[in-house]
């Protein structure tokens, strides 16, 4: 994997962050086209005197008008990954321009790094960057433990930065996560759903504590949801078919969907289940890719060796999810019994 040195991108100093829970953004955007790394100091959620040095990447496509409020994809990488690798394997930066989205890539933390070094976390050698995604119990992916980083709080600070620095549509912030990042996406749905417009997970199993309405997970807002899994992905808790059906059934029930679950074929390898009888604007889907392991689905594939040379019939799920989120406003529920 080709690494992008932090010194080769724009490095922003810590900014004064605006208040949360507004719908205003800053136009025109303060960043020009290209990839930028933003570093900020984040006070610990429980001990404000303790400071975490954190960072995230922002990709601004040339196609985005800096004077027009545009949607945002907030991309959470997996355990043992980082923004550089996730950008490579998902190729999302190569897709967002045609849909008019910004892409934002938070960087996780590692127990091998001091708090002042977390902004430079790259998964190599003995360092594994990831998320404190446990819910309701803390922990995950060898993240620091004393104290633990509060990554929901980090997400709030990123949202505040977006409000203050990008001409973003704050009503159209979407979250997507792979593996441990998918667990983080579930946690954000449980604890910060009111700030988002839709969610996607890939290669991450639903747990009892992360299902809306189950355990401690009681989202303030119901989100359209899509989950994707390869049929040989062990991280999906049983493979694509039972995993995506479970996601559709559990999230569909939580959102008030009352109809049957119907299946559609995307290609010879890719399919989606969709809940029916859902409230308007709240679609729920679960998609499977036959023969794919713990990988982001596209062709020819990128990242880890098992993810290369994918079947050319595999649906490009970066395009699929962008199209899915873009069409939410005009969503027409599928008919029950198809």
Describe the protein:
The chain is of the alpha/beta class. It has 2 domains: 27-223, Alpha/Beta hydrolase fold, catalytic domain (Rossmann fold, 3-Layer(aba) Sandwich), CATH 3.40.50; 225-338, no CATH class. The protein is built from 6 helices and 11 strands. The protein has helices at residues 83-90, 96-99, 151-165, 180-192, 240-255, 317-326; strands at residues 10-12, 34-43, 51-60, 70-76, 102-106, 168-178, 198-202, 225-230, 261-265, 270-275, 284-289. It has an 11-stranded mixed sheet, with helices on both faces. Strand 10 and strand 11 (284-289) form a beta hairpin. The longest helix has 16 residues, at 240-255. The chain is globular and about 50 Å long. The N and C termini lie far apart (44 Å). Mean pLDDT is 87; it is low at 1-22.
Descriptive key words:
338 residues, alpha/beta, globular, Rossmann fold, eleven-stranded mixed sheet
